[in-house]
Amino acid sequence: MMVKENSAMDNLVNLGTRPDCAVIALNAVTREYAGHAGVVRALDRASFSIVAGEWVAITGPSGSGKSTLVNLIGCLDRPTEGQLRIDGADVATMSANELDRFRADKIGFIFQQFHLIPYLSAFENVMLAQYFHSMTDEKEARASLERVGLGQRAEHLPSELSGGEQQRVCIARALINNPPILLADEPTGNLDAANQKIVAGLLQDLHSQGHTIVMVTHDPEMAALAQRKIALSHGKVFCHPVGGGPVITLKR
Ligand SMILES: Nc1ncnc2c1ncn2[C@@H]1O[C@H](COP(=O)(O)OP(=O)(O)OP(=O)(O)O)[C@@H](O)[C@H]1O
Ligand SMILES: [Mg+2]
Known about the structure:
Strand content: 25-35%
Strand order of the largest sheet: 6-7-8-3-9-10
Bound molecules: adenosine-5'-triphosphate, magnesium ion
Largest sheet: 6 strands, mixed
Helix content: 25-40%
């Protein structure tokens, strides 16, 4: 019997469009902003999937829609049109409270600007993340700081930490409750080369521990660490298959 084997490219296109194995699945997702200057279509019918455990880099020039996309995946914003499923759930159907709970369980955020509370210690900043999970477990907060190599800096204020250390506190905070998805918007954008290397190593560890990582970056070295690139241009999405190679536009 002749069995037609799927080509590697077929498989990759399937990987990009099969919602059943996806932890993040977008179907024709559009986000428009209405401003004084008219309507801006920041994301234009984006359709792709990310499977559990993948590390994906989102790339593209300034204004191409990267943060818009990350805010949608992070359930901080809702699509104007289209469907978005996170871990199988249609987030459009959730109430604001359900969405807050869902986000806290599923997603850890790592920002370029760290967003640490300046008058709280590293430990207290991580404890604060637990507040949003309605839990307080000092041991877990300390373990999270240990996980990023900052056990010895727990009592330091952000101003008493280097930029790289502040970003590691931000990562420790994102790891509270061990969310399956980590969303990072320019995680090394404010770091020097030495600290970038440390944060890159941490993300590699977290990826090998099974976290799905979606990372916006302008830095080709950081993007090269990811298994796949999703490139944005004027709000439109182009995906690279696993391991680099030619750009393919996913079927709609
Ligand atoms: N609240 C808003 N109101 C109106 N337009 C907006 C708003 N937020 C973003 N935009 C527009 O949407 C487009 C995409 O913005 P977005 O912030 O997603 O870009 P980006 O790729 O993250 O850029 P950068 O690399 O500079 O961070 C831009 O043209 C921007 O001007
Ligand atoms: Mg941005």
